[in-house]
Batch of 4 targets.
Target 1
Amino acid sequence: MPDKDPCALITGIAKRMCEDDWEPGGGESSDGGGGITEGASGHVKDLAEALIKTLRGLLAPKHAWAPEKADNPVYAQFLWLGQHLAIAILVCVIVVCALTAWQGAPRLKQLGASTGWTLAAVAGMASVPGVVMLLNRAVASAFTTAFDSDQSTLLKTISDDLDQGADAGNPVAILIIISALVVALAFAALVFMTRQLGILAFVLMAPLVLASLARGGDTSAVRAWAMRLLGLMFAPFALLLISPFVPMVKGSLVMEAVLLVAADALMLRMIFHGIPYFGPKIAGAARGFVESRTTNPLARAVVRAGSPDFYEQENQPRMPRTVDTPGRAAHQDRGVLYAAYGIKQKQRSSRLTTESAINKSQREAPRDQQLVEARRAARAAAAQPTTPGPRTPGHGRGPAGRTQAPAAGAPGPAPVRPPNP
């Protein structure tokens, strides 16, 4: 009768360990592996590498959502509108110059400037998608060089320290760096969504902005549009602020996790300042989301550093950290665009939004109460009568504003007679 298999009644990993004569004293299995610990460590490192790769792709993707060519079906509609708008403006300028040709050289100069700028605007409309595509690839390549090229960059340092760092075998340190990468991935996803949508919107509106040049070369609207588009595209380079600290924390996964937390605050601030019109609202919403779901003071401090308190104002800023509402910001840029077309836009009144006014009143309530109490105390002190000084016997009031008693033998005051009826 053959011997029974001692491992027949065991299932799962324990059965494989029984069949391979695995010893709990740290010996390796027959297949050359390092046991459960080695396998789990490998999976954790693979997860970290995947998170780093995704993080890099979200912060500076090589491919943008904006159209890459002028014949894109979506961009073609805006291109047609912009070109026809520029030609219509040129025709209007020609008609006006023809009707006022008696003015001579000024009208000829205006006609020449309008014609030249119209040709430049039409050519520029077709080249915007290609220029944005090349610039986006350059930004992605530069970002990769700055953050994941060698051992002195943050993401590359984290990858190397997972294998060779001083705490590479410490499960707590690995858990901390994985958690920091996951949190950074969430902020990077928010940066990716807002940045890609912003680039798409500004590329699509490029023909309408460039058409304003046809009136005579007013570049104010084009400069405002270009500054906001470039701010969106170069926003990821705000993370360069943490690059000088990478060599200081090299070899420690925990300290590198601290740098990732600082990167989270920078990414939130990147949204606050880099996303036109809606940046402060999006960053504030992210801050409110975090604060409503955690009581950790560190997490709250990070999101407050990334999205500071601010007031929303509908006109020119009057106080520190006052930002415009989305409607007011778009209204101002629309006014610049209208001005380039020669249209005067009515200005909005300057006031805080209702929510911002309530928040300001609540924040300044203690100071206002102190001022009210100080004014009340000052009024009470001013209304209190002055205590008279001690009187000398036989005399009236003192000489300083006080009446003297009449001297002996001196006539008294004349009696007051009633008036005649």
Target 2
Amino acid sequence: MTRTTHRPEVLVSGASIAGPALAFWLNRHGYAVTVVEKAGALRSGGYPIDVRGTALDVVEKMGILPRLRDAHIDLRRLTFLHADGSEVASLHPHAVTGGATGRDLEIRRGDLTDALYTAVRDDVEFLFNDSVDTLDQSGRGVDVTFRGGDSRTFDMVFGADGMHSRTREMLFGPEEQFHRYLGHCFAVFTMRNALGLSHETVMWNTPGRAAALYAVGDDDEVHAFLNFARPDPPHDALGNPDAQRTLLAKVFADAGWEVPGILAALRDADDVFFDAVSQIRMPRWSSGRVALLGDAAHAPSFLTGQGTSLALIGAHNLAASLADRDHTAGFAAYERGTRDFVTRTQDRVGEGGGTLFPTTARALEQRNERLRGLSAR
């Protein structure tokens, strides 16, 4: 819609992927958008993410597809190893992921956030180093106070603040009620590329444990990844880096291959990201004039490879639903148009987990048989 009179003012919390994408489309539809981000700047670099299917159409419509194609990581080989480091199979990643060569994109997370920010920064107000402290809804809007001390009133507020969304907590209560733990924990960080890996991932598995090194290009650094099965989330370790390192060292104490070197690098790494592998499942994504999107609403977990695509598609759908409707009708249309796709994606989580992280000796041997069959083709 084109609004010549009053441009409704809206606030988006979170400047990762869903937030700037939503800001782009809402601006297109005549809204005055402010994005607040608690970090002091955009996070650059970061681990690789996938953009697939309908999400490619979204970034094409945004005009950023050529830039993302230039940033595409051409991952050429995925090698799986036995406990002793000997090879199970080595194949093209798409043989395992079912991706479409030449169409699907794999890029560093920071390359996507940079492209989204560049596409929208001239039309949208960004507030870095700040966050929402309180939300108070009334008939006329949402009164917001910021951590930095300011207070403003917006017509609508959107929570695009990730898996552990503070907006969701303020609106719907504690995360536990929506958090679905998938039986694994993981850590990811960067370390020296001691093996000279190039455009490839090497993954070591034993039942219930995995370690991988991911070389995005010919860099001096690789992304190290540790994953382990555990019946309950380690609540004492979440948010406690020392406890995380201790837990990982214990879980992988007797591991072979390059794992001792990975654990040594973990001790000194300053960019460790540790979390439970989980999903967010909610009966509804909005309340009054506030709506959630991306991981805040429906994190699918990295096992689906679809978190980024869902965030981009959801942002596009949410803004389109508000193009010619008020918040009540718009939010309802957004859920109607997006929820089925989200649920189907979340329900496919077992496929990724079974391939990458078998938890029993039998499941691991069956996985290895499948990989040897794919590789023989």
Target 3
Amino acid sequence: MELSTTLRYAGDPRQAAEAVAALEPAGLDAIWVAEAYGFDSPTIMGFLAARTRHAKIGSAILNVYSRTPALIAQTAAGLDALSGGRALLGLGASGPQVVEGWHGRPYDQPLGRTRETIELCRRIWRREVVDHHGITDMPLPPEKGGRLGKPLKILTRPVRPGIPVYVAALGPADVRLTAEVADGWLPALFIPEKAGEVWGAPLAEGAARRDPALGPLQTVAGGLPAIGEDAAAARDLARPAVALYVGGMGAKGRNFYHDLAVAYGYGQAADRIQELYLTGKKREAEAAVPDALCEQLSLCGPERYVRERIAAYRDAGVTMLDVHPVGPRPANLIETVKNWL
């Protein structure tokens, strides 16, 4: 099992990137960079490429609406070149609030767009001349306003003919597609003991259609770690993120994280969190997150307990444990957890 952390989109990006890069010697195998509608992640990933030597660097995530598939492929290839072959491409459909509200794009065909983007990226990295007409046209045909475009291949030569593609997916159809075509999966709010119940069927269905050449699906999941006899209190630090995702990441009826909390058996609490968050009562929403959910989404407690949590993630198929260290000595925490993997 590998170890990673995710650079969040709040705060000073340079300070955060420097702090995360400093954890590489402690044992980080990968650094993921979130984007949402804050600072763009490719700029920060390029900075990290210059500040690190061995850790993989991935987007978590680039949405498949605001950039063309060709630009996504170029971005990943550029990062791979700068980092010496350490790039990971995390993709996802995001959600209608961000896609329509921020990028001004219609939120349509999320599954088709995701599949097509992965296919086109892989063709571009192989330096194929691309003549493709689907959701995306390459080149733009005359009937859609094209005049001088012709099929092209990427001008530069990518470091690798294939960059690992990870997909953020929660719903059954998204997870089924991910298990079929992606190199890896980026689930959010992952409870290892519930994973089989919630996602087992779509994972199996997608795997049945998977090209064996892709190898086994890689899964990235984890939570906030804290180790010690009194470390259970650190679980409360997970409340703001859980409240944000369950309560604020989407309108009522279109929040995938809320739906996941319902699937986990927290339907009543999820509704209350959402109601509070969408009416501006963020602190009350955080307080409404059940203690049991905070525990299931974190790795906080005595050494034996944390080791058991890590084993649960491994048993659930997680191949990269993504942790968010807190406290005054994050490097020590990373080193300790790395030694237990």
Target 4
Amino acid sequence: MRSSGSAVQVEDTVHALQRLAPGASLRSPATPELRLLAAALRDCAPGALASRHPEVVARVVLGAELKALRRAMTGFFGTGGAEAARLVRAARFGAGPVRERLREPGLRAAALGWAEVRGHRMLAGELCGVVAAPGEEEGRAAAELTVAALLPEVDAGEGGREVLGSEVGGEASDFLDVHSVRVGRRGFRVDVHADPPVELLRDRSGLALRALWWNGLGRVADDLGYEYLLLAKDPAGTGIVRHWCHPRPAPGARVLRLESAGYRGERQLLDRSSAGSCAEVLVKLELTVRLGA
């Protein structure tokens, strides 16, 4: 199973869980497997989960892949591609639990083709009758599922008290500016104004637009050594990116260190016959802000 593309994010979240500020209110995972993995992540990197608990990781990931298969069989979720269309056709006239339905040869073959294209190794092995050993990718996918089961829900309506004192500094201050830090009942919200450069230029390929798009914060820590969970990000389209963090700042903390998740670089050729290009620019920039009263 491929992770959701947020491997860096899950690594940062696990790092924060291992150094979490006091007062956090985490959820209890619903299954014994997820509870075991949650305990393991206290001192284990996501990619190492598969080597430490291979059977549990395999079961958790297989369960998620079967759930994704069940959704794809309906055709309602825009999975796309020839294999997905074949899967939907093969599943059209059946009913019942997905594992029982997969005994039908036509649906089983369609599901196998879909699983192989999607990178669902545990499911492909199950359909072939082969026990696939989970690797680092499955370990990260299991970590993502575990983290999702642990994190508290975001209270988007909570305002809170403004505590932003002054911006102390940071190497990203030319592009990023901390607009607000508001502490609520269960956590705090950080609003950052992002103004990355955009330029219009003409080169050998013609007229082009080059821009950087900010990916938001990646890690939040304080001067006491504690870290905080980033529960959600919301780029409101106004230049302000809002981040919901948990828990509240630790007693005695006076400075927050805000580490950028990096930038996405984009070069768009304005000639109709040319295509644009996009690439991730993983630049770790940091801002520091002082907390006021």
